[in-house]
Specification:
- By secondary structure, the protein is α+β, with helices and mostly antiparallel strands.
- It folds into two domains: about 80 residues, Alpha-Beta Plaits, CATH 3.30.70.330; about 60 residues, ZNF265 like.
- Helix content is about 20%, strand content about 20%.
- It has four helices and seven strands, in the order βαββαββαββα.
- A five-stranded antiparallel β-sheet has the order 2-3-1-5-4.
- It is elongated, with a radius of gyration of 25 Å.
- The chain starts with a strand and ends in a 17-residue tail after the last helix.
- The model has no long low-confidence stretch (mean pLDDT about 80).
Length: about 160
């Protein structure tokens, strides 16, 4: 993980500088994290190496920081960029607490202490709603699916 990247640096600039000035071997991919709407760099990036040994060699040789200049160097020193290890998404999913739960409506992971989804406010699966289950609440309120205009035949009349 790289934190504090120059805002104007793109993946190709980072790759070039790392190979030229830091003699990085085994670099497979560089990813700069950008704002979804503005597409401006969030000054955070990730490096993917071919294997763990090459990653370790890079971090151990350069920890805690490297200096990157970017396409338009503002000074001779460059920008100090902090580096550290990060985990793959799959590893983070395994690290969640056992009692945490996934919302069935929006598929977001919620802490075990939440009774409703923090994103869509759907109730926690298996939870009781005011002393009654969700199903019995729907039956009590006589919830029925809407009839659609596309339904035809004697059943729809």
């Amino acid at each position: 993980m790289m934190d504090g990247l120059p805002v104007d640096m793109v993946e190709e600039d980072i790759t070039t500088e790392l190979k030229e000035f830091y003699n990085v071997n085994g670099l497979d991919d560089v990813r700069v994290i950008r704002d979804r709407q503005t597409k401006v760099s969030r000054q955070l990036g990730f490096l993917r190496f071919r294997d763990l040994n090459q990653s370790r060699a890079f971090v151990e040789r350069n920890f805690p920081s490297i200096y990157l200049h970017g396409p338009n160097p503002h000074n001779d020193r460059g920008t100090k960029v902090r580096i550290a290890y990060s985990r793959e998404r799959e590893d983070r999913a395994r690290a969640r607490a056992e009692a945490d739960w996934t919302c069935i409506m929006c598929a977001i992971v919620n802490y075990s202490t939440r009774q409703k989804c923090f994103r869509c406010q759907a109730p926690r699966p298996g939870m009781l709603l005011m002393g009654t289950s969700i199903r019995s609440k729907l039956i009590r309120t006589r919830w029925r699916p809407r009839r659609s205009s596309w339904t035809t035949g004697p059943e729809s009349r």
